[in-house]
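We treat protein structure as text, and this decision shapes the records that our systems exchange. This encoding replaces a full spatial description with a residue-level series of whole-number codes. Below, we set out a record of this kind in full and without editing:
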Amino acid sequence: MTATPRPTLRVTLIGASLLTIALGACGASPYTVDGAQCSPERHQALVGRNIGEVLLPPNLRKREVGPERVMTRDFNPARLTMFLDAKGWITGIACG
């Protein structure tokens, strides 16, 4: 008597294989710009984009400074500071 695989196990294995293929096809980082620390060269690509379409890594310290916002004076060289216009477009970046 031979054991036949259970249908639920077969479906699970097929689903897991398809998910692995789909994720492997992406290949790129899901973030607009990745990196755990501010890098002027890397993050310059954000200028001209809207903050609503930007996806940054959760471990990157960041702050947004709009035209009517007050900026704190604490300096952190690893933190990305994004300067925004009134509509949320990134007009400049700085580290600190």
Q: What stands out?
A: The chain has two helices and three strands.
